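Following up on my earlier thread - several people asked me to post the actual chain instead of describing it. Fair enough. Here it is, all 114 residues.
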Amino acid sequence: MSIKDIFLDAFGRFAAGDVEVLKEVIRDDFINHDPDSPRDKEAWIEFISTGPIATSTLDLKRVIADDEFVVAHYQLIPREGGLGEAVVDVWRFEDDLIVEHWDVAQPVTAPDQV
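Reply from S.P.:
Thanks for posting it. Predicted structure:
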């Protein structure tokens, strides 16, 4: 299975409400590079599992992958509605597990700007 397939399976499960999948696909020495959220695996999973992303609709727009990285672009639509945010996550894999994460996000101001 390619890392793109691993990512797509995990993303689909997470988007359907299975936050436990994060424990399966993230390596113990994981590093998150977003300065606004925890850096290590356990704290980051707790942050994501209890934050707005866990209850939002995730509309995957595109995925780009090579042998080491997966880049995902999706629209995060809050439960309350609205246009939400356009998000790009960069995931680095080693031995079929996620070891690093970077992200950027911006508010969506019109449907054609996702």
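The chain is about 25% helix and 40% strand. That should answer part of your original question.
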